Amino acid sequence: MSSMKKLFGILLVAGLVAGSSLANSEDDVNARTAPVGSTCMSGDDCAAAPAPAAAAGPKSGKDVYGGFCTTCHGAGLMGAPKLGSAADWGPRAGKGKDTLYTHAIGGFNSMPPKGMCASCSDDEIKAAVDYMLDNSK
């Protein structure tokens, strides 16, 4: 065996022995395999970290429109009435706001329930409908 192969073999074995004793301690294995979010247990110092702030209040109709409705209602995709188009919104507004609210919340034709804003409250969806109506006269 050449001296280079012998040296490589010795270094490889030394590295494996050293690495296995460090990398496989029970604490290391537990830390690497702990479920996500379970590393900070009640009573630990990290458990006292402040929780992220909740939203200050309900989203405005403009915010809901900008975050969810604009994709379809901005371009008129799949027959959605376009924001700013009195011709698109006039006949729908003639059916009354309650009908528009029911369609927006429950879904209608190609529109999914709540326009895919599952986290939006019914009141936030109604505010988005009002925003679109007010800006489409």
Description:
Helices cover 53% and strands 0% of the residues. The chain contains 6 helices and no strands. It has helices at residues 3-23, 26-33, 61-73, 86-93, 97-106, 122-134. Helix 3 packs across helix 6. The longest helix has 21 residues, at 3-23. The mean pLDDT is 81.
Tell the overall outline.
elongated
Gap between N and C termini, in Å? 89 Å
Helix-residue proportion: 40-55%
**How many distinct beta strands?**
0
CATH superfamily of the domain at 61-134: Cytochrome c-like domain
CATH-level-2 architecture of the domain at 61-134: Orthogonal Bundle
Query: Strand count, sense and closure of the main sheet?
Result: none
* Average pLDDT: 81
Point out poorly predicted stretches. Answer: none
